[in-house]
TrEMBL record:
Keywords: Hydrolase. This is HAD family hydrolase. The keyword Hydrolase applies. GO terms for molecular function: hydrolase activity. It comes from the Bacteria. Transmembrane segments: none annotated. It comes from Adonisia turfae CCMR0081. It holds the Pfam family Hydrolase. Gene3D superfamilies: 1.20.120.1600, HAD superfamily/HAD-like (3.40.50.1000). Signal peptide: none annotated. NCBIfam families: HAD-SF-IA-v1.
């Protein structure tokens, strides 16, 4: 139960919270054209090798780190680690084409989770709402929210590529509080599908949080621990007076 009178703001994560991407397993089949680019350029022999190197590199250099890297920065740094002999001009061409392919194919992987629009309608007259998203292309969370007509519910959208900081760094949450006019943190509720970024880390700054537990439908998601408030469907997120 969430009492609307105890809140001034709700901060939402974006992807796999307000907008779902890929299939329910989290497998990125829809990004195959992007991963094919370095294969076609002769830097790799198979797209699964590209994908594996990216996820391995991301775990070491991105996950949990405070600074964002854009799509091109990520793959430039990845190739510097795994393909240090690659020609610089070729790398530049590959990175530019990978970004083009991502922009073309990623939107086709998106869809709205059940109940999200009616949930936002229930809350829009009760509190102010904002979005804080980790994403490697500036303005894309806002653009995708607009694509589905959800942007009208939010007073601001803050993404990591635009501001340079990532969840779970305290800095991006502080930026969000500033964008909201510096409300008392205890009157802000954070909700999203990442256990650390959206449920645990906001509490460090005094915000409340609810974990949007997708583990029953997305194999890559963590189940909610007993000490974390959680919902599994937007129909469960209801304002009470």
């Amino acid at each position: 139960m969430v009492t609307s009178t105890s809140l001034d703001w709700i901060f939402f994560d974006c992807f796999n919270t307000l907008i779902d991407d890929f299939d329910t397993s989290g497998y990125e089949a829809g990004l195959a054209p992007m991963y094919q680019v370095p294969v076609t350029a002769g830097l790799y022999t198979d797209i699964e090798d590209v994908r594996a190197d990216y996820h391995r590199w991301r775990l070491e250099y991105i996950a949990g780190k405070p600074h964002e890297q854009t799509l091109q920065e990520r793959f430039r740094n990845l190739l510097a680690v795994y393909r240090p002999e690659a020609d610089t001009a070729l790398v530049d061409q590959v990175l530019a084409e990978m970004e083009v392919q991502f922009m073309e194919c990623f939107p086709a992987t998106l869809r709205l989770p059940a109940g999200v629009e009616s949930m936002l309608q229930r809350w829009q007259d009760q509190v102010s709402m904002g979005v804080i998203s980790n994403f490697f292309l500036a303005d894309w969370p806002g653009k995708m929210l607009e694509r589905y007509g959800l942007n009208v519910y939010f007073q601001f959208v803050l993404d990591s590529a635009e501001c340079g900081k990532r969840k779970p760094s305290d800095t991006i949450y502080q930026m969000a509080l500033e964008a909201a006019g510096n409300p008392a943190p205890e009157r802000v509720l954070f909700i999203g599908d990442h256990l650390t970024n959206d449920a645990i880390a906001p509490q460090r700054l005094g915000m409340r949080s609810i974990y949007f537990d997708r583990s029953a439908e997305r194999a890559s998601s963590s189940a909610a621990p007993a000490d974390i408030k959680a919902i599994t469907h937007w129909d469960q997120f209801i304002p009470y007076p």
